Amino acid sequence: MKILGISGSLRRASFNTALLHAAQELAPEGVSIAIHDLHGLPLFDQDVEEQGDPAPVAALKQAIEEADGVLLASPEYNGGITGVLKNAIDWASRPGLGRPASVLAGRRICIVGASPGITGTVRAQDQLRQVLRRAGAAAEPQSEVLVFQAHTKILDGKLVDERTREALARHLKSYVALLQAGVR
Ligand SMILES: Cc1cc2nc3c(=O)[nH]c(=O)nc-3n(C[C@H](O)[C@H](O)[C@H](O)COP(=O)(O)O)c2cc1C
């Protein structure tokens, strides 16, 4: 089973990208997680879209389409998801030329998030659930991985907090079980 990991942060030392790296280590057996980099994805522009998807957009859509599941790691900016992630979702939500439906339609999408504050991206994750729903996808499973005080749990890009590692592993296991149970 192939899962596509996408970080909503472009920052080199991103806690959220680090969470994706931890997910790669903690994924259930037989599950691989490839990380798709959003550097280079242009800002959504409907005039550009009408000319056909730019290469980074086409690559993003193809990667989502080919993956069995998608794992989004979202920072929280001003109580919501980052522009980087929203932009990626906006592009992916559009079928574009020659595709009958959005690559997000009907998909189950796993979400996680980390922030140095004490709320651990809870507001961003609530918003992300709503945005995904509007795009025809569902955030699954219902359990949450809210990595608060991330700077104490992620050191040098590695998730070292054992309880958080266990929570992430459980979350991924539930997600994979849902994917295996049927509708992707
Ligand atoms: C513009 C901006 C707004 C932010 N707003 C919030 C916020 O609302 N809640 C929060 O917990 N952290 C907030 N932060 C702090 C981020 O959680 C922190 O920078 C985090 O490390 C970003 O994720 P990353 O490490 O994956 O890049 C904000 C940071 C920026 C740059």
Index terms:
41% helix, Rossmann fold, globular, 6-stranded parallel beta sheet, alpha/beta, 184 residues, binds flavin mononucleotide
Secondary structure blueprint with pairings:
Blueprint: E1 2-7, H1 15-26, E2 32-36, H2 46-50, H3 55-66, E3 69-73, H4 83-92, E4 108-114, H5 122-134, E5 138-139, E6 146-147, H6 150-153, E7 154-155, E8 158-159, H7 162-181
Parallel strand pairs: 1-2, 1-3, 3-4, 4-5, 4-6
Antiparallel strand pairs: 7-8
The structure holds flavin mononucleotide (FMN).
Flavin mononucleotide binds at residues 9, 11, 14-16, 75-79, 115-117, 119.
Q: How many DSSP E strands?
A: 8
> What bound compounds does this protein have?
flavin mononucleotide
Corresponding CATH architecture: 3-Layer(aba) Sandwich
Runs in which pLDDT lies below 50 for 5 or more consecutive residues are none
Give the biggest sheet.
6 strands, parallel
N-to-C order of helices and strands? EHEHHEHEHEEHEEH
The CATH C-level name is Alpha Beta
Question: What structural class results from the helix and strand content?
Answer: alpha/beta
CATH homologous superfamily classification: Flavodoxin domain
Q: How many separate domains make up the residues?
A: 1
Provide the gyration radius in Å. Answer: 16 Å
Mean pLDDT equals 97
Strand content: 15-25%
Morphology: globular
User: How much helical structure, as a percent, in the residues?
Assistant: 40-55%
Helix segment tally: 7
Task: Give the CATH topology.
Answer: Rossmann fold
